[in-house]
């Protein structure tokens, strides 16, 4: 079954810490009191003002402040205080239309464009066109056509601000979409737009709020300017701009008229900018949390057939002749073959730049923009993950295949507590209610060895240790009860003691739940401790496969031998070892791969015939394959990597 978002049912108030931040600033408090007070006083003015805004007294024309008229009177004897208050609410409320329209139009387009290159290209062109338009001329032309309809003018002003607002929001949204916690949401099967709403938009909220308040002040100024030149609401309706224009005509007869009219307008715009400045200082805790309610739809078809869950007995991963490459560029992975059976642990090892991580991302359909599957198959039951559409992948991610990042603190969203993130994933993946999700969340944290579960549930990611964060990340991965877990260097950033605990935890998961694991790692000690089978990658190719015992104790490829010779865990048990071996040179870039053996330039056993293309051949001992024409001849000679012999020497 597929699910879709039908509506946003709840947007919580800003976090109480944001309120405390505003309260700690006397200027922000004064600005908020001024704005709210103006609106309330204006809306209730007919109930308590002694004079109406249109009431004239020709015997009290152009008077200064007095007990009868607190701010004096205008050229027709009308009370200035009454007119200022009466005009306040319409001015402020109509001014809100501009930022509301600007934000409602710009934010969704920005979130969409920041994750879709084609939409980004179109949105960039549209924003450039809007920025090039003469906004003042367009506004004046619209007023000439439809009259002084201020709500329509404010809406038009908001639309004309799209180009500038898009430029402000896009860079931040683009950066946030590259964060690991957003990628982790995609791994869990969250729809792209929902991931943007839940993880990207809250992190942009400070910028959005600041721009909203600034545009509010600009809209007030625009209304006043239009009224001043006679293009606002017409007399005798009171407007701040119209009152300033009248005061300017009598500046020599009664200069006081300019003080209250200009002062109220200036103070209101200053108040809006003060709030924006306070908010621009940032917030130290999460902004509003968006929760989404989903409803089920009838099962739909994808490019690979019905999006039905893969039966448990068929949940084995088969990668066949996988080729990954850059669009219009070189290949990054060529001819990769892997077979991960249910209940087994496959280790994927090799140096950085060999293609391990990008291969694991391809299994989840999460290749970076510009990368694609050129050929090959990633079989998961009857489903080909290399060709599956987004709906099919959302059904697989989190539910059947989960992912653990090597940096758990970056994979967890810093804006939400552990409990919020874990219960949200459980509700989405298991379709349970909030109370049951909280119970399951506590049980998952207990299963991964966290003792103080209530405290951890209430904590933010920065408030827990790296080892505990990794356990939380594993809990998130288990939220959907997956059959396959892809772990990308899950112990790299942890100390030795915590590494051992995490490895023991993963072993327990395999034993208790019958899960299979693909472990991407550099650490051969971890492979020996946890894996059943291992595949060694070099320069985008699989160079050796087999059982852990065969590959680590009886390696047949020189690259595997070199890795073992450089491993401190293996060197400790070798008699006469005085130093660790090193592999000269580095992994060649994809565009520089040789046509023959890609390891030949760094290999001590290389021969001229290694310049020809070399296929995978069956191992001499055990089950598996090796990509070396001399594997039978050099088998068992890994100790020679510790002898300082020139590269290409005839050993």
Automatic annotation (TrEMBL):
UniProt-recorded Gene Ontology molecular function terms: ATP binding; ATP hydrolysis activity
Biological process according to GO: peptide transport; transmembrane transport
Protein family: Belongs to the binding-protein-dependent transport system permease family. Belongs to the ABC transporter superfamily.
Annotated compartments: Cell membrane; Membrane
Stated name of the protein: Oligopeptide/dipeptide ABC transporter, ATP-binding protein
Gene3D superfamilies xref list: MetI-like, P-loop containing nucleotide triphosphate hydrolases
Transmembrane segments: 27-49, 92-114, 126-146, 152-170, 208-231
Top-level taxonomic group: Bacteria
Topology versus the membrane: Multi-pass membrane protein; Peripheral membrane protein
């Amino acid at each position: 079954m597929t699910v879709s978002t039908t509506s946003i049912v709840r947007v919580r108030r800003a976090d109480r810490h944001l309120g405390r931040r505003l309260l700690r600033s006397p200027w922000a408090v004064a600005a908020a009191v001024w704005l709210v007070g103006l609106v309330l006083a204006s809306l209730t003015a007919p109930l308590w003002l002694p004079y109406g805004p249109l009431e004239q007294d020709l015997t009290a024309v152009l008077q200064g402040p007095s007990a009868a008229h607190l701010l004096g009177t205008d050229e027709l004897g009308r009370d200035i205080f009454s007119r200022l208050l009466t005009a306040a609410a319409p001015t402020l409320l109509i001014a809100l239309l501009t930022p509301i329209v600007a934000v409602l139009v710009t934010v969704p387009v920005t979130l969409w464009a920041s994750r879709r290159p084609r939409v980004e290209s179109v949105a960039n062109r549209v924003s450039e066109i809007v920025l090039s338009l003469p906004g003042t001329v367009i506004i004046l032309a619209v007023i000439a056509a439809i009259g002084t309809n201020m709500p329509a003018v404010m809406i038009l002003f908001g639309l004309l601000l799209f180009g500038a607002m898009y430029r402000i929001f896009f860079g931040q949204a683009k950066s946030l979409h590259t964060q690991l916690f957003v990628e982790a949401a995609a791994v869990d099967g969250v729809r792209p737009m929902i991931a943007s709403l839940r993880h990207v938009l809250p992190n942009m909220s400070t910028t959005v709020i600041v721009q909203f308040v600034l545009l509010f002040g600009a809209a007030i100024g625009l209304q006043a300017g239009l009224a001043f030149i006679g293009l606002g609401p017409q007399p005798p309706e009171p407007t701040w701009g119209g009152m300033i224009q009248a005061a300017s005509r009598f500046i020599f007869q009664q200069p006081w008229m300019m003080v209250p009219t200009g002062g109220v307008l200036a103070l209101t715009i200053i108040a809006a900018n003060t709030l924006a400045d306070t908010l621009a200082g940032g917030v130290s805790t999460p902004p509003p949390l968006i929760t989404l309610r989903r409803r089920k739809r009838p099962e739909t078809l994808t490019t690979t057939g019905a999006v039905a869950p893969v039966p448990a007995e068929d949940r084995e991963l088969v990668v066949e002749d996988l080729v990954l490459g850059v669009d219009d560029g070189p290949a990054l992975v060529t001819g990769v073959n892997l077979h991960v059976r249910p209940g087994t642990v496959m280790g994927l090892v090799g140096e950085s730049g060999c293609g391990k991580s990008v291969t694991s991302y391809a299994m989840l359909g999460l290749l970076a923009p510009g990368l694609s599957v050129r050929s090959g198959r990633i079989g998961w039951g009857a489903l080909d993950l290399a060709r599956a559409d987004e709906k099919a992948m959302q059904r697989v991610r989190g539910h059947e295949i989960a992912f653990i990042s090597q940096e758990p603190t970056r994979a967890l969203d810093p804006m939400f507590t552990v409990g919020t993130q874990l219960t949200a994933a459980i509700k989405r993946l298991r379709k349970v209610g909030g109370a049951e999700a909280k119970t399951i969340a506590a049980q998952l944290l207990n299963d991964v060895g966290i003792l103080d579960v209530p405290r951890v549930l209430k904590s933010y990611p920065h408030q827990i240790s790296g080892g505990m964060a990794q356990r939380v990340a594993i809990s998130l991965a288990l939220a959907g009860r997956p059959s396959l877990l892809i772990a990308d260097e899950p112990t790299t950033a942890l100390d030795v003691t915590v590494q051992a605990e995490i490895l023991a935890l993963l072993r327990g998961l395999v034993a208790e739940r019958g899960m299979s694991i693909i472990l991407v790692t550099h650490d051969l000690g971890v492979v020996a401790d946890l894996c059943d089978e291992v595949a060694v990658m070099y320069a985008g190719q699989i160079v050796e496969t087999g059982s852990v015992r065969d590959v680590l104790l009886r390696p047949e490829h020189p690259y595997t031998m070199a890795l073992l010779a450089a491993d401190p865990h293996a060197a400790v048990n070798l008699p006469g070892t005085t130093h660790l071996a090193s592999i000269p040179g580095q992994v060649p870039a994809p565009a520089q791969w040789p046509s023959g053996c890609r390891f030949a330039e760094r290999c001590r056993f290389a021969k001229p015939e290694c310049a020809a293309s070399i296929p995978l051949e069956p191992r001499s001992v055990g089950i598996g394959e090796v990509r070396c024409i001399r594997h039978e001849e050099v088998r068992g000679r890994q100790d020679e990597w510790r002898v300082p012999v020139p590269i290409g020497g005839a050993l």
